[in-house]
Design a protein that fits this description.
heterodimer, A: about 250 residues, alpha+beta, Alpha-Beta Plaits, four-stranded mixed sheet, three-stranded antiparallel sheet, about 15% helix, globular, B: about 425 residues, mainly alpha, Formate dehydrogenase/DMSO reductase fold, disordered N terminus
């Protein structure tokens, strides 16, 4: 058996958000959608404050509340530990979104072709169109169009349809080929480590060995496959600073 | 009014179109069109046209007024079939006059509840298919949609059909434009003693079967929220029973209002007497007292020694963003409680005050439903995403108006094709007239 997991070293993370960018490019996520997200947190009161960073992919829980509540089985848990959404089956009720305590789900509020409107690129510009070939978004990852895994379901990538829910897939299209997720390979300080937890010689197993670890909201019994080392869980006092532009504009705007 | 072919007008105003009826219908149709336009905008632009946004980084609420309406409408459906079933099980003959309209209210409310789910779905067509095709009973949503629609609505329709067959048989013997329709409804039923006994037996067992189904359906709606450990304010054992009770409050309140309108419009002062309203008032009083007790328990639990997130939530609810709605809703439940308690103690049931109470408790019920759905999303995030916000957009309000209007249209239309109050007491004389 395989159990894919990700270790995140908070002592190494410098909050550069390169993983966030890598994820957006690999998975073609629309504007304001962050399958991978990095909190930049501040705690304490001036002048005794401290800054910390907390990358937040989908936790790929072993006891996922989102899978439990899905009324159609579109959200499912693979034997290898990856939690995925079948975009061909999802009806867009967003129950997974309210059930998830980590806030990792994103709904396609707009049509895929409108969803990239906030990138501020003049798509009509002939020079730009010559480069992109009229594609929206300008770069489309061809791997995302394929059905994934033994179950052959449409689970990779983003914005296939309006009105379905999506989230981090651990880059299933890459994992299927034996590659690490985009965020992991992009991280300039190797704060993210991916691999098979059941294999004692995998990068993630060797990295975790002997290190103090915690999981986010472990007390809820979700049993996440994302394991944090170094650092501490965010305290109730933690507040976010330097938020990216995260709002979805009006479709008419 | 000129009667063609010397036809006798049908009882209960069936088939005779009055000006007041037409005005209500016209208003309902206009409202429904507003709703359809709103939904068309939502479909063409995507659900970005609503005020809902993602939880987490987008700091929104992903369930909004639509889900509050689902809960509300399915709640209203409670009363109809309960009242109808109780009348039949306990032989509360004084309430017979409101049984039919209660059944109709249940069916209409369930249709509206289903539509409110559909308008909330990102993929509505796929939803209607997949909710059945890939139905997972493990999901509380199964109870809300698959069970409520396929079980509860179907059972209610069969119940309405069976209990109304006798009236259809009576009316089918008279020449009228609707004769064919009544004959179809009666479907061979001729009100012989054997048929009557069989129908009574079937409806009795159906009523007995519907009662537990109803508790299950409304509880499952509570479980949609109550089973979510990751959402402070939702997780709790009180949700399911509180949903059942508040469903009863809004439903009985609705029946009182509907009964008063029908009584006035059709001049049925005797058929739907004061004592019928008294029974409904007592029923509402009991449910309301239970629900207010739940509210006290709920508030005490979140203010006594709350966790960090619960405290944030309770402050938003009791003195922050949602305070006006919370205290407003509580007031619209406490005031009718006092009115009803006063009337119960003095044993004088005034229809005007009952209707006021019915309207108020429904406003309170909608408010409470909204407060269950929204604040736990905007103020209940466990990771440091910050406080969110949600305001329904014009599109959502238009669809809301449309749903209520469609309900009014369905009930007003039903009133003119079938007696909304059953003819049972008149039935024997009717039959004699026809045979004479």
């Amino acid at each position: 058996m395989t159990h894919y997991a990700m270790a995140i070293d908070l002592d190494r993370c410098q909050g550069c958000r390169a993983c966030v960018e890598a994820c957006k490019i690999e998975n073609n996520t629309p504007s304001a959608v962050f399958w991978m997200y990095v909190f930049r947190l501040e705690e304490g009161t001036y002048p005794d404050t401290s800054i910390s960073f907390l990358p937040r992919p989908c936790q790929h829980c072993h006891n996922p509340p989102c899978v439990k509540v899905c009324p159609t089985g579109a959200r499912f848990h693979r034997d290898d530990g990856i939690v995925l959404t079948d975009f061909d089956r999802c009806i867009g009720c967003r129950y997974c979104e309210v059930a998830c305590p980590y806030g990792v789900n994103f709904f396609n509020w707009r049509k895929p072709e409108q969803a990239f409107a906030d990138y501020q690129l003049a798509m009509d510009d002939p020079d730009l169109a010559a480069v992109t070939g009229g594609l929206i978004p300008p770069y489309r990852n061809p791997d995302l169009d394929e059905l994934q895994g033994d179950e052959q379901r449409r689970t990779a990538g983003s914005a296939h349809y309006k009105g379905v829910v999506e989230k981090c897939t651990f880059c299933v299209q890459r994992v299927e080929k034996g590659l690490d997720p985009a965020c992991v390979v992009t991280c300039p300080v190797e704060a993210l480590v991916f691999g098979d937890l059941e294999d004692p010689n995998s990068p993630v197993s060797t990295y975790l060995r002997g290190r103090d670890q915690f999981k986010l909201l472990e007390e809820l019994g979700t049993d996440p496959s994302v394991i944090y080392v170094g650092g501490t869980p965010p305290t109730p006092d933690a507040r976010e600073i330097e938020r990216p532009m995260t709002g979805v504009g009006n479709a008419n705007a | 009014m000129p009667t063609r072919d010397m036809r006798q007008p049908l009882p209960m105003g069936v088939g005779s179109l009055t000006r007041g009826w037409a005005a209500v219908l016209a208003l309902g149709v206009v409202g429904t069109v507003v709703g359809i336009v709103g939904y068309a905008v939502e479909r063409t632009q995507g659900m970005v046209a609503t005020g809902m946004r993602d939880l987490g980084t987008m700091q929104g609420a992903t369930w909004g007024i639509y889900i509050a309406l689902v809960v509300y409408f399915v709640g209203v459906s409670f009363a109809g079939i309960t009242v109808a079933a109780l009348i039949r099980l306990f032989r509360l003959d004084k309430l017979r006059g409101v049984a039919r309209m209660a059944e109709v209210l249940t069916v209409v409310a369930l249709i509206l509840g289903a539509l409110a789910i559909i308008v909330d779905l990102g993929q509505p067509v796929r939803g209607v298919i997949n909710l059945f095709r890939y139905a997972r009973p493990q999901s509380p949503f199964f109870g809300t949609f698959s069970l409520v629609i396929s079980g509860y609505l179907f059972a209610s329709l069969v119940y309405l059909y069976l209990t109304a067959r006798r009236d259809a048989a009576v009316l089918a013997r008279r020449p009228s434009r609707l004769q064919g329709f009544f004959r179809l409804w009666a479907a061979g039923y001729e009100d012989t003693p054997e048929q009557r006994a069989r129908d009574r037996r079937v409806t009795f067992w159906l009523a007995l079967a519907i009662l537990p189904l109803l508790v299950i359906a409304h509880s499952s709606l509570g479980f949609v929220f109550g089973l979510q450990v990751g959402r402070p304010g939702w997780f709790g054992t009180l949700q399911a029973p509180a949903f059942v009770v508040l469903a009863g409050v809004s439903g009985v309140g609705h029946i009182i209002v509907l009964a008063a309108i029908v009584r006035k419009a059709l001049g049925l002062g005797k058929r739907i007497g004061r004592d019928a309203f008294g029974w409904l008032g007592l029923f509402l009083l009991g449910l309301l007292a239970t629900y207010l007790y739940f509210v006290v328990v709920e508030v005490l639990t979140i203010i006594y020694q709350p966790g960090v997130i619960e405290q944030r939530l309770s402050e938003a609810l009791l003195s922050g963003t949602y305070a006006w709605l919370f205290w407003g809703s509580v007031a619209t439940l406490v005031v009718p409680f006092l009115i009803l308690a006063w009337m119960a103690l003095t044993r004088t049931w005034r229809v005007g005050w009952l209707v006021t109470s019915g309207i108020l408790v429904n406003l309170g019920a909608i408010g409470k439903r909204y407060l269950i759905v929204v604040p736990s999303q905007t103020h209940g995030q466990l990771l440091p995403y910050g406080i969110g916000s949600y305001t329904p957009s014009l599109v959502e309000l238009a669809v809301t108006v449309g749903l209520f209007s469609l309900g009014a249209v369905l009930i007003t239309l039903f009133m003119k094709v079938f007696p909304i109050v059953d003819l049972e007491t008149e039935a024997s004389t009717e039959l004699e007239e026809v045979s004479a």
